[in-house]
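Lab notebook, page 48
Experiment: co-folding of the full assembly
Goal: obtain a model of how the components sit together before planning crosslinking
Operator: M.T.
Materials (sequences as entered):
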Amino acid sequence: MNSLGRLFRISVFGESHGECVGITIDGCPAGLSIDQNEFLLDLERRKGVNQKGTTPRKEEDLPIFKAGIFNHTTTGFPITILFENKNVRSEDYTKQRDIPRPGHADWVAHQKFGGYEDYRGGGHFSARLTTGIVAAGVIAKKLLNKISDNQKINVQASVIEIGGEADLEKGLQKAIDAKDSVGGIIECRVTNMPVGLGEPYFDSIESVLSKIIFSIPAVRGVEFGTGFAAAKMFGSEHNDAIENETGKTTTNHAGGVVGGISNGNDLVFRLAIKPTSSTPAQQKSLNWSSGRQETFSIKGRHDLCVALRAPVIVEAVTAIVLVDFLLQSQQLKRIL
Amino acid sequence: MNSLGRLFRISVFGESHGECVGITIDGCPAGLSIDQNEFLLDLERRKGVNQKGTTPRKEEDLPIFKAGIFNHTTTGFPITILFENKNVRSEDYTKQRDIPRPGHADWVAHQKFGGYEDYRGGGHFSARLTTGIVAAGVIAKKLLNKISDNQKINVQASVIEIGGEADLEKGLQKAIDAKDSVGGIIECRVTNMPVGLGEPYFDSIESVLSKIIFSIPAVRGVEFGTGFAAAKMFGSEHNDAIENETGKTTTNHAGGVVGGISNGNDLVFRLAIKPTSSTPAQQKSLNWSSGRQETFSIKGRHDLCVALRAPVIVEAVTAIVLVDFLLQSQQLKRIL
Amino acid sequence: MNSLGRLFRISVFGESHGECVGITIDGCPAGLSIDQNEFLLDLERRKGVNQKGTTPRKEEDLPIFKAGIFNHTTTGFPITILFENKNVRSEDYTKQRDIPRPGHADWVAHQKFGGYEDYRGGGHFSARLTTGIVAAGVIAKKLLNKISDNQKINVQASVIEIGGEADLEKGLQKAIDAKDSVGGIIECRVTNMPVGLGEPYFDSIESVLSKIIFSIPAVRGVEFGTGFAAAKMFGSEHNDAIENETGKTTTNHAGGVVGGISNGNDLVFRLAIKPTSSTPAQQKSLNWSSGRQETFSIKGRHDLCVALRAPVIVEAVTAIVLVDFLLQSQQLKRIL
Amino acid sequence: MNSLGRLFRISVFGESHGECVGITIDGCPAGLSIDQNEFLLDLERRKGVNQKGTTPRKEEDLPIFKAGIFNHTTTGFPITILFENKNVRSEDYTKQRDIPRPGHADWVAHQKFGGYEDYRGGGHFSARLTTGIVAAGVIAKKLLNKISDNQKINVQASVIEIGGEADLEKGLQKAIDAKDSVGGIIECRVTNMPVGLGEPYFDSIESVLSKIIFSIPAVRGVEFGTGFAAAKMFGSEHNDAIENETGKTTTNHAGGVVGGISNGNDLVFRLAIKPTSSTPAQQKSLNWSSGRQETFSIKGRHDLCVALRAPVIVEAVTAIVLVDFLLQSQQLKRIL
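Observation: model returned without errors.
Model output:
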C-alpha cells in the first residue's frame, strides 16, 4: 500500500507524466504555521538544480495546499499537497515502450498490472513521487523543532561517496568521461536525539527507518552505526562504553541505537544508491514485439547520479519517522 | 508494537528468564498439517547445539501448541505456540544489575520503562524471543511449499563470513584466541521466486523484508543484490539485461527486485551481524550506584558469535514475509 | 486517522469551504474502466437535487481524477479524486463563530484543535466530505459487478422512515410545518452475498461495517437483521433454520451474518440518522464571547432531513467494505 | 484478524474446548501493579456464577500470566494471559456434528474453513474467548484510574431489559416458562469522560467502539445517546444546548459524542443481545449427512440469557478503547 506511519501517516499518489504527484499527511498536530516559501529550499535540493549530473527536466515544483491548512496554519486534519506536472515529454517513453528498460520497473510493472500501468516516465515508480515526501519532510522538520525541552532535533544527510570516490567531483567526472551513470553513498546524522524512541523487534528504530528508506527508489543497502564493518570487529571493540548517567558513550559504533531504542547519542546511518538505471550507455534488453533481446540506448532526460538528489529525501523520511516515534512517545502535544 | 504483517501476522511475547517465550500467528490458512517433529530441526539450528562458539545455555525448546491446531491441522484461527524457560540462571543478572552492559539494551530499557522492565537475561530484548519466530518460520516454509504451480519456493540462508574471514573456522578461532566475540555476514537466497510480489514505495520487498530483518537482534546492516558495492558501479554494469519473456536476467545485481517488485530471478540479500555484546573481555561501563564508569566483565552464558545461529532466523522471517506477500497477491487460497 | 481498509483503503481529506474535498483509493485492482459519467448518478443522489428538504447549496460535484487513472482505466496505483468547492458562502459561518452550534462539532473541535480548526461550514466535519466516499463507492460497486462467478453482488439502500413516519412525504411535511428538521431510518440490503466473508471478533462483518457506517455524519445507531427487536424474541423464534446445503435459511433474522461471517442470505442492516443539527428553529447555546448561554438561530443553507441524502453514502461504504473483504478472501484478482 | 487497537492492542486466541483461551495485550504502559485477585470479580461477573439463566459449565477462570509481568508489575512489554479449559465435555458436540446449529457459526465456519475448524463448543467462535477480553478490561480499567487530573473515568454497564421486560426477573421467568432462551438490552455509561477523545470519520468514538462491541458474540445492534429514537425527533428537540464553557449540555441526546469526539458529558450507549442460539426448544436445521432438513434439539450446557453475562464484557471493551484513545491523545504517559 502507499501509506505509512502510525500516528503521523503519509500517503503518496500520482505519476511522473500524469496530472500531478502529491501526498497526504494525516496526524499532523494543529497550530503549525505553514508558508510556501519554507518548502522551496528542500524542493530545490531535491531537483538538484544547476547541479552537474542531474536531469535537465525542470519542474517548478510549487507545493499547492489543497486541504488541512487554514489561515496559513495546520488544522489537525489531513494535509494534501499537490505538485503539477508541466514539463512533460511523454513521447520519449511511448517510443521505447517495446523495450523494458533494464534496472527500471517496466518489466515487473507490466507483469503485475497487466499492461494497465501508466508507463510514461516510470509512472508511479518515478522518483518524482519523492517531491511529496520532501514536502512532508519540511513539515516534519518543523515539528521536530517545536519539541519543547530545548532539544532541537537536527537531521542532516549528505553524499559521502560518488562512483567509489570520496572526492565527489572526481566521482562525477568518471561518469561523464565514461558516458555512463554512477551510484553513491549517503550518510545521515541526527543530533540531539531524545533517549527512548523505538522498541525492540518490529518497531525498532532500524526497522521503521529501513522500511521507509528502502522505499526511496534506487536504495540498495542500509547500515546503522559501523554497519557492515561491525561484522569484522571484536565485541570489546564494537561495544560503546557508557560514560555517565546521560548515556553518552565514548565511541558510537551503535549509531545511537541499542536494542532498537535510541540512546541519546547521534543517530547515524548510511545507504547505498545504485547508479541511475537510465544510463546514456548502450544496453541489452528484451524487445517485447520481437520476443528477442536487442541492443538499444535510453531516450529521455535523466540524472547521471541520482545519489546527488537523495540527501534531502533521506532527511525527509527520517524526520517523518522521528515525528511518528515522538507522537507515540507522547513527547509532542498540540502546538500552542 | 510487537506484531507485524498484513494478512499473515505474527506477534511475539515473553522474556528470557520469565515463564516462557512465545508467538501467535494470525491469518494462517486452514488445513495445513502440523507435526511437532517438523519444528525440531530448525529449532536445533537456532540453538546451534554442539556448535563451537554458541552459548552453553541449552533449553529443550519443544513447541507447545496452545491454540489454532485441531487434529494436528491448522484451523484458520490464531496459532499460539509457547516455549517454556527451564534452564534459567537469573542470579547472574541480578548480580550485575548495577552496571548496564555495553551493547545491550540495559541502559535504554531502564530509561524507557523506568526500571520496571524485566532485566534478567535481557528480558524481552533477548534473542530467545526468536524461538517463536523460528517456529512461525517452519509454518511459513510449509505454506511456501504448498503453492500450487510446481514452483517450490525455497529460502536458504548461510553464514558467509565470520570475524572478517570467509573461512568460518578461522574466524571463530580468532575469537577464541582473543577471548572475545566476533560478528559475521549472512547471505539469504530465495529460489523459484514468483514474479510480481511487492509494490513500489512502502510495501517494496526491500522495505518489508528489511523491517523484519532489522528486528532480529544484532543486525546492523542489510543489502540487496550487489548492495553497497552497487554504489561503486557504472549503470551499464549494474543493470541486469533481460534475456527473454520469462524475465530472466543475464546478471542479478538487483538481487531479484526491481521497483520493489520481484522479477522472478533469485531474491538475494545479505545482512551484517555485530559481534556478541556479551564478550568475555573486560569492558568499561557506568555503575549506576556509584555514578562513575568502571571496568567489569560480563557473567552469564553467551555465544562467541551469534551470527552462527542467525541463518535459520533469517530464513524464518523471509518465509513469513513471502507468505504475507503471496496471500496479498491472492496466489494462496485455503489448502485442500 | 482519516483512512480505513486493509487491502482496499480509502483516505478522505478536505474541508467544506476550503479549496476542495477529496479521496484517495489505494489497492484498487488494475484494468477497471473509469468514465466520469458513471459517477454522476450517485453524486446527484448524494446532493438530493430538486428534492424537497435538501440544502439549496448546489455544487457541480464533477469528479476530477488526479492520479491512478491512465487511458480511462485504473492502473493499480492510488486513485486520487478531487471535488472543487465553488459555491461557498463562508461569511454565514464567520458571523456566528461566537456561538458553537448545538449538535455540531464546533465546540469539541475548538477544544481539541485549539481554535486552529477550519470552522467554516463545519470544515473537515462537514458531510461534504462524503462526496469522495460516494465516488469511491461507484468504483467499489463496479468492482463488485466484476466478480466472476455469475454472482452480481447488489447493494441497495433506501429511506424507510422519516420523522417517525413510513410515509416519507408525510414525515417531511411534519418538518416543514414545524419549521424544524427531522431524522430518519435507512435500510440497506445486499443481495447475492458470497458465503464466507468476515471473521469472528474484530473483523466480523458487523464490526467492519459498523465502523465505517458510524463514520457517516449524523448516524446514531446501527442494527443487523432483526436488530434491537431480537432482544425481545425467544431463541427458537430468532434462530434461522437452515434449509439446505446452499445455506438458505427460512427466515433471515440474522440479516445474513452468523458468527461475523456471511451465510449467503441477504445482508440486511438499518441505521438511524438524527435530525439535521442545523434547524431553522430557535435554539440555546453558549456564547464564547460573553461566556453566557443565549438564544439564537442558525444561518446558512441546510437540509431539513439529511437522511434523504444518506442512502447513496450507505451503499458506498457498504460496497467499499465488501470489496475489501473480497480481496482478502482472494475472490477478486486483477481484472482482465 | 484477531487483533485490534492502535497503541493499546489486544489479540485473542484459543478455542472453547482446546487447551486454553487467552489474550495478549500490547502497549500497556510499564509500572502498573498486577494482582491476580483484582481479576476475580470481573471474571466471576462474566461467568454469571449462581445466576439463574447462566450455563452450568463452570471453569475456574484463573488468569495465568505468561509474559509481560515482573515483580507483580507491568513491564511495558506484551502481557500474555491464559485461561485453561478444564471442564470440557466435547462429546456433546461430536454427537451433533452432523447438524449445523441454527444461530451458531457451525455452517459458515464449515464453508469458510473447509471442515478444518475446531467445531467443539463453537471453537474459536465461543463466547469463552471473552474471558481474555475481560482480563484485558481489568487492566484497562486500572489504567483509566491512573489518569492524573483528578478525573477518575468510570465505565459501568448493566442489563436494562430481558426478553422485552424491564423487570429482569420477569423476563427471565418468561424464558424458563417457555423452555426457551431470551435476549436483552445492555446500557453502558462512562462518567468523567475527558473532552476531545475521538476524531471525525473512521476514528470517531462511535466507529471505534461499535467495531469492538460488534465483535462480542450475539450483539445485533448498537446505538449512542438517544439512538434509534433520535430518528423520530425534531432537530430542536434532539440538539443538546451547551450551557457553559465546560461544555456541559442541558440534555444528553448525543450520548456524549458530537462529530465523533467526546464532549465531556457522559458517554452513553446501548446494545441489543439476541437470545442465546442454543435454546432447549426443538429446532429445524439441515443434516449434512442426509442433505435434508430435520428437527432436533441442542445438547450441551448453555445460558438461557447470555445478556446477563455481557455487561462486564461491554465494560471491558469500552475501557480498552478508551485507553487507546487516551494514549493517542497523549494524556497518559508512563506510570511512575
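Interpretation: The domain at 3-328 of chain A is CATH 3.60.150.10 (Chorismate synthase, AroC fold).
Next step: discuss with group before ordering constructs.
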